[in-house]
Amino acid sequence: MNDYYQTLEVDKGASDADIKKAYRRLALKYHPDRNPGDTAAEDKFKEINEAYACLSDPQKRANYDQFGTAEGAGAGFGFGGFGDFGSNFGDIFEDVFGNIFGDFSGRRRTRPTKGQDLRYDLEINLKEAVFGIDKQIKIPRWENCTTCQGTGARPGKGPTVCSTCKGTGQTRLQQGFFTIARTCGTCGGAGKIITDPCTACRGQGRLRKERTVTLKVPAGVDTGIRLKVTGEGEAGSHGGPYGDLYVVVHVAPHPFFKRKDNDLLCEVPISFVQASLGGEVEVPTLEGNEHIKIPAGTPSGKVFHLRGKGVPKLGGYGKGDQFVSVFIDVPKKLSQRQKELLREFAEISGDEVSKGFMDKLKDMFHNHSEQKEAK
C-alpha cells in the first residue's frame, strides 16, 4: 500500500490546508481530462484521490497514523475500508475544485451566464471635462436575437433534448470505483440541440449590432477616470444578463491651460511698461474673461490667484483655482524712436540692474576665495 503522505507529497505533520492544497495541485496535474488516454496519469489520479479521502477525514487520518489503515487496528484496507467512498468522491472533489471539470452531482453545467464587459475609450476636451457633458457613443456588440428571443431556434420550434446526454449536459465515464462526468460533446453542455435554427441569427441566438448609448460625463473628470454603464455590454448566454460597459476617459491637451489636480495653470504676457508702472490685464478663464491688477514693479514669473476658477471636485463639493503666471514680453522689433527712448532710459537709470548684479557677483567670488584660504 502506498504511503498516503508520500502520494500527496506532504509531511506527516502537514495541516489540513496544506493537504488540501497539495491535493488540488496534483489532481489538476493528473486529471484524465488533461491527460486523455494516459493510463499512468489515470492510475496516479486514483492514488491521490484515495490518499486525500483518508487524510482529509480527521478520524480516518488518526487511524491511518496509528495503525496504517483508515479504519483502525485489524482492518485490512480495501474498498470496504472507505465505506461509501465511491459515492462520496464527487462531494470531496467538488468541495476542493467546484465545477472545474464537471459536476459530479448530476446537475447540468450549463446555466445562464452574464455577458462579457466592454471597454470604450472616449476623448473629450478640457471644457467638456470641467463642466460635464452628455455624449452619444456607438458601441458594436452582440445582442440577443429578437426573432428567436435568444434561443437560436426557429420561432415555434424550440430546441430538442440532446439524445446523447438525455438533457443533462454531461456524459459519464466509469473509471474503476468512481465516475467522472464530462461535458457532452454533442450539445456542448446545453442539454439541448437546435435541429431547426433561426434564420435571422443562424442558430447563434445573438446578432452583431451597433448600439447608440447616451453617456453622462460628470463635471470634473480627468484622464484615466472609468465610467460604468450597467447592462450595455455583450448579451449573456442561456438567458443570462447583459455585461457592463466601461468608458475610459481621455482629456485632450489644451493649448492655453494646463491642469494640475483641480487647479488650472496658465501664462499671460505683460509689457515692460505694465510690469514697471502697473496696470490691468485681461485673463481668459473657462467661464469667461477676468481682469487682474498688475502692481508696479511686478517681476516676470509672478503668480496671481483666481479663486474658484478651476475644476469642480468630482463627486464632491467646491472647485479648484486658476493660477496665472505673468511674463514680460520683450518686443523683437523696435522703431527708431523706441530705441532712442530706451537708450535715454538706460542713461538716466545708469544701468542700475546690471551694476547691482555685477556687485553681487563680485561679492560672491570674494567670499568664496576667503573661505578657500581659511581651509
Overview of the molecule:
The structure is a single chain. The protein has four domains: 4-97, DnaJ domain (Helix Hairpins, Orthogonal Bundle), CATH 1.10.287; 118-146 and 205-251, Urease metallochaperone UreE, N-terminal domain (HSP40/DNAj peptide-binding domain, Sandwich), CATH 2.60.260; 258-328, Urease metallochaperone UreE, N-terminal domain (HSP40/DNAj peptide-binding domain), CATH 2.60.260.20; 336-374. Helices cover 29% and strands 25% of the residues. The chain is built from nine helices and 15 strands. The chain has helices at 4-7, 16-30, 39-55, 58-67, 85-97, 126-131, 272-277, 336-349, 352-374; strands spanning 118-124, 133-144, 160-161, 170-175, 178-183, 192-193, 206-217, 226-229, 245-251, 258-260, 263-270, 279-285, 288-294, 303-306, 322-328. Helix 2 (16-30) packs antiparallel against helix 3 (39-55). The longest helix has 23 residues, at 352-374.
Give structural attributes.
HSP40/DNAj peptide-binding domain; single chain; 4-stranded mixed sheet; 3-stranded mixed sheet; alpha+beta; 375 residues; Helix Hairpins
Topology pattern, helix = H, strand = E: HHHHHEHEEEEEEEEEEHEEEEHH
Total beta strands: 15
Estimated helix fraction = 25-40%
CATH class of the largest domain: Mainly Alpha
Quickly describe the structure.
The protein is α+β, with helices and mostly antiparallel strands and 375 residues long.
Protein topology:
Elements: H1 4-7, H2 16-30, H3 39-55, H4 58-67, H5 85-97, E1 118-124, H6 126-131, E2 133-144, E3 160-161, E4 170-175, E5 178-183, E6 192-193, E7 206-217, E8 226-229, E9 245-251, E10 258-260, E11 263-270, H7 272-277, E12 279-285, E13 288-294, E14 303-306, E15 322-328, H8 336-349, H9 352-374
Parallel strand pairs: 1-9, 11-15
Antiparallel strand pairs: 2-7, 3-6, 4-5, 8-9, 10-11, 12-13, 14-15
Helix pairs in contact: 2-3
